[in-house]
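Bench log, entry 3. Co-assembly request; chain sequences pasted below exactly as received.
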Amino acid sequence: MEYINKSILNEKILEDLKKNKIDHMTYLPDMEVLKSDIMDKVLKAVKNYNYYRYTKSDVLYALEKENLSPEDFAALLSPAAAPLLEEIAQKARIITKKHFGNSIYIFTPIYIANYCENYCIYCGFNCHNKINRAKLNEQEIEKEMKAISETGLQEILILTGESRTKSDITYIGEACKIARKYFKLIGLEIYPVNSEEYAYLHKCGADYVTVFQETYNADKYQTLHLSGHKRIFPYRFYAQERALKGGMRGVGFAALLGLDDFRKDAFATGYHAYTLQKKYPHAEIAFSCPRLRPIINNDKINAMNVHEKELLQVVCAYRLFMPFANITISTRECARVRDNMVNIAATKISAGVNTGIGEHADDIASKGDGQFEISDERSVYEVYHTLLKNHLQPVMSDYIYV
Amino acid sequence: MNSDKLILGGYEFTSRFILGSGKFSLELVSACIEKARAEIITLALRRANEGGLANILDYIPKNITLLPNTSGARNAEEAVRIAKLSREIGYGNFIKLEVIRDSKYLLPDNYETIKATEILAKEGFIVMPYMYPDLNVARSLVDAGAACIMPLAAPIGSNKGLSTKDFIQILVDEIDLPIIVDAGIGKPSQACEAMEMGVAAVMANTAIATAGNVAVMAEAFKKAIEAGRSAYLSGIGRIINKGASASSPLTGFLQ
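Structure output for the full assembly:
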């Protein structure tokens, strides 16, 4: 317990933590099991990752290299790299420019439902939280999407809470079909599904799937995800691979930094993506970089504390390790951090974000509470013009559905 | 020099500099075209918005030949679909064929490229295939109906210059179609060197996009390409290798 970020605990959770729970490593019926060794590889690598082993010269060596190995990535995430953050950021910027020029992609998420069957103790959507639940019907989805598209956006990320019963695959598929009318690019951030379900959603128009593993420490994972499908660690781990098997073009990865030792989780996230891209060379790779804020007034050095410096170190390490990957910077971060991150290593930024349900169009009856509070409330127009002002080129779409 | 034209699919061009457009600010596009005196600019079909914000087409002058590319295609079938879509939208018959199923190095898939070239050429496209410089593949592309061959000098965006120089030279020597160097050219001197070798044109994007002053670098490329072309046409003089001759004549024993 001592390693849990205490900001996420309350009395009910402390009680529930003591109860018997199902085994988090055993698949439930109907969960597709892939023949794949990627999880074993990743968990082994992260177990052996001792970031104190790396020295300044390991970091400098990594900075000079063109094609980084996982070892170099490990060095860049180590404490030894922290004093070299400026040099790392400079290099990351050059590499980002090389691969993306000054293009920055703009998108927005749309939350179509917030019903959830999981009990993740750190999440505002979790099934025990008494929040206003809602699910948009097709007409409402259309209204919302139309309102969003009128802001000039051409890329949308469809999100649901993780409830297979309330937001089934057909429902999400219909949302994709509606989205096709208004947007060029459709991404999904939904509960993990089987590869044939991903294939169905691909047919409906989606081409990108992001699944946050939250933490790659399976022992910690089970103390954070007490019930629901999400409790099953390997099923979630293999979501990206199933999505690729289902024909998706790209997959996104993330650890919620700060849930566990962030260096290990960031290493695992990068290594997970790296291993999967080796197996599926055509796969487009993306990273998100959400973090739990360190608890205020807690100055004790803690391996889980992810301040802005640590966040930047992680983002730059992702960039240098996988120069071609998209990196999204969340609205959980404030405008100052986001505007600087896209000038260094991030390539995607959301704008006009509302994490609530039915908040984009004016006349929607179903309204649901948001998953988290955002720190950057700027509209598409504002983000667009800030990018231009900073000599970056906003790109609304660089994608074609084939 | 005015009679020195680049001919692609029956169309004549004076400029031998093809400008990539994907990596820099849209407001700089027209300045670049002007400084580079480019007549052809590539355009990723996936980046072409119909209307809306940040539409690259709003920034390209009307007299410029658009060279739509098939970026995003992972196999021949997808490339063919993108090319057809491009023509339907009204971008004409030119197509820069890119088939890439490697997200790390963005290396072209030669095999799928040959397949797509064959299909598209039959459909009346002017096919400009991006390829890894392999003579056998280039010959197959000729047979498949390509309008030119576009070998990479180095991986896309690497700015490494003519890493594949010897193999590009073989293509220049053996293939009767225009050889256009695409990808990897990092600075004007490298573009110049490629032109001296006899390639028909050079394409650049990242080298210009990552320059301190994008428009001025575009102009520098133009000059380098012209210089290289002139050198090639004038016939490059003999380069004497020093220290290679024996001190007494080797043929002195002959009676």
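Chain A touches chain B through 33 residues (CB under 8 Å). The longest helix of chain A spans residues 262-279.
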